[in-house]
Amino acid sequence: MSAQDIIRSIEAEYYKKETPEIYVGDTVRVGVIIQEGNKERTQPYEGTVIAKRNGGISATITVRRIFQGIGVERVFLVHSPRIESIKVIRRGRVRRAKLYYLRDRVGKATRVKQRFDRKL
């Protein structure tokens, strides 16, 4: 058994089974577990997926939202134990792999066209 096989078998334990198909341009609601003192709660973070990195266990999505007139981006590890849930709210129709151009847009120009699929 090679070293890569050992690493894969260890990583397999930490993969999340219930992850939806996430595409760039989708609007998602990510439930993040926040720890305050000795209490834990789930805080929703809703925004548009502007980038996606597929790296097996280290796969990430970058979610952008506008908060009090300022653009806020967060990078989430998809398989992290701190992520409780990821829910796709609406599908976006885009022609790019990365939507970094949305950073320069303001107001209604940041909207992404909706993609209508049978599954959602």
From TrEMBL:
SUPFAM superfamilies: Translation proteins SH3-like domain
GO cellular component: cytosolic large ribosomal subunit
Key word Nucleotide-binding present: no
GO molecular function per UniProt: structural constituent of ribosome
Keywords linked to the UniProt accession: Ribonucleoprotein, Ribosomal protein
InterPro entries documented for this protein: Ribosomal_bL19 (IPR001857), Ribosomal_bL19_CS (IPR018257), Ribosomal_bL19_sf (IPR038657), Translation_prot_SH3-like_sf (IPR008991)
Keyword Plastid: no
GO biological process: translation
Name under which the protein is recorded: Large ribosomal subunit protein bL19
Species name: Petrachloros mirabilis ULC683
